[in-house]
């Protein structure tokens, strides 16, 4: 780079020219900065040429600026220039000696030179244009401007006045701004209503017209309206509110002691008798398992906690806790023990052996809580504790399953499946009529949910869910001896299938009345007439009922708030029969040679839901079929509904009130006809004819 004086520069300022409006300026000197020194001077341009003087390492004029620099890395300097005088505007109450006499406080040109061996290497030109600072006369207050409700009034006569007791820049209507300050931005005022420039009074206002040019209609048709009622009413209000969001913080939250509620509400933690949280292990948000997680009222959950076992776990704590019921009393947790049949749901083995195998008895693998509630409290708590005997020959991963379900009512009640129609994925409600009490007892309509071995003897049951077609099955071990007793085998298989559906009645709605048979329909069974031999021949048994099919027919009976109300019309159970035949294998495990060897035969169950269409419209009359011009569904004009409020189809109010109002209207019509002009003319003509 070549300067005006011909000096070759190996350093440069970035930026080399700055237009400054504040008291602090900074720039970088980049290049070979070893042995560099700085000088600053206030310069003025030549009147003849308009150029500034050449760079000089000797200050020409002692400035009111301070210069400092800092080495950044190896090849750069950070150069800072700061003003060392006050920018306060002089006034009557100002006591600062070097205050600004005019609003434009400082306007000058600075030249910063980078020198090496008294030779200038680079120059920085700074053009300053700084206004005086405005300070409030009164101490700064923390009070905020009270903005009125914008639904009913505009944002004042000066909406841009948002600072209390201070002058807002470019807000020319701000009463806190002095004339000296307003002169600084007199040509840059905020435009429009926000800057206080409201539209003039409309000509239709009574106060807008003078007595000289009033139109003829003005005294009668002008509008008298207060000044607050203007076109900008609610201009800055759109009906929405913004709630501040808490900013993230790295501070540890302050934990307060738990306060047991008087009555439980949804989401409230449940407390024990000792004012401690009632806890059940649950999964946390980080994928971990929290052993002491509080149970929230009316919040169902299921969780799984995986733990690696290398030795027998410690015995579990006593589950029979006293829990506050939220109604002023205490309920005790009732425990029901159950042994696990299939451990493959809970254990996964490892290939790493253990030197000494261990046998662990009664290891808890699952806890299923059922909490019964009524209103704002608990009525009972039961837990099904599933245990298993585990032999540790190698480290295993134990998956413990936890669940909590809240059921409304007492211990014998079950949740409904809708109100009043069935909801999809809710259990189909079955029942059995108790002849002694004539009350319907709830019974099950289930499907199989087989376990790990797939046997029907170890398979669990799951309820048939409304609207969900599904099929499930399991296997039954059968030997050649069983096949030879074919009739007995048929009865055994049919009894296994019959255990799925113990109900004889099914509820038509999702919330039935267990004391009224009107809400229930009988479950019909489709029987097949077949004559089969009582005993099997050559290892074969025919007509074995191997499939149970449940067919549910439903219909939509209207809608409630747009939600279709589906009810059950009928339920039919049918059996599908097949032939079982023992397969003889060549080898040691030949069931034909050894009649006691078992073979597995599948049995299945399924449920199908069919929705029947229902035509709720009344049949069309022959008149509406033949005379389509009088059909209200096809024409905009409906003459048959001329007296619609007097018909039975009008349901806006009771029929008696509608009829009474209609008769009153007829009475007024007759009275108007009698007292009106036509009747008066008829009486005059009659009187003239008599005379």
Secondary structure: elements and pairs:
Blueprint: E1 11-14, E2 17-20, E3 24-31, E4 37-43, E5 65-71, E6 76-83, E7 104-116, E8 119-131, H1 179-184, H2 218-221, E9 282-283, E10 289-290, E11 301-309, E12 322-324, E13 330-339, E14 347-349, E15 358-374, E16 377-392, E17 396-408, E18 430-434, E19 439-443, E20 446-449, E21 460-463, E22 470-478, H3 480-484, H4 486-498, E23 505-507, E24 520-526, E25 540-560, E26 563-581, E27 599-611, H5 622-626, H6 655-675, H7 677-690
Parallel strand pairs: 2-8, 13-16, 15-17, 24-26, 25-27
Antiparallel strand pairs: 1-3, 3-6, 4-7, 5-6, 7-8, 9-10, 11-17, 12-13, 14-17, 15-16, 18-19, 18-23, 20-21, 22-27, 23-24, 25-26
Organism: Phoxinus phoxinus
Subunit structure: Part of the tectonic-like complex (also named B9 complex).
Transmembrane segments: 658-676
The dominant shape is: flat
**Relative helix content:** under 10%
**Which strand order does the major sheet show?**
19-18-23-24-26-25-27-22
Sheet of most strands: 8 strands, mixed
Low-confidence stretches: 1-8
Mean pLDDT: 78
Report the structural category. mainly beta
How large is the count of helical segments?
7
Organism: Phoxinus phoxinus (Eurasian minnow)
Family: Belongs to the tectonic family.
Transmembrane segments: 658-676
Domain Tectonic-1-3 N-terminal: 140-241
Could you explain the architecture of this structure?
The chain has 691 residues and is mainly β. The protein is 10% helix and 33% strand. The protein has helices spanning 179-184, 218-221, 480-484, 486-498, 622-626, 655-675, 677-690; strands at residues 11-14, 17-20, 24-31, 37-43, 65-71, 76-83, 104-116, 119-131, 282-283, 289-290, 301-309, 322-324, 330-339, 347-349, 358-374, 377-392, 396-408, 430-434, 439-443, 446-449, 460-463, 470-478, 505-507, 520-526, 540-560, 563-581, 599-611. Strand 12 (322-324) and strand 13 form a beta hairpin. The longest helix is centred in the C-terminal third of the chain and has 21 residues, at 655-675.
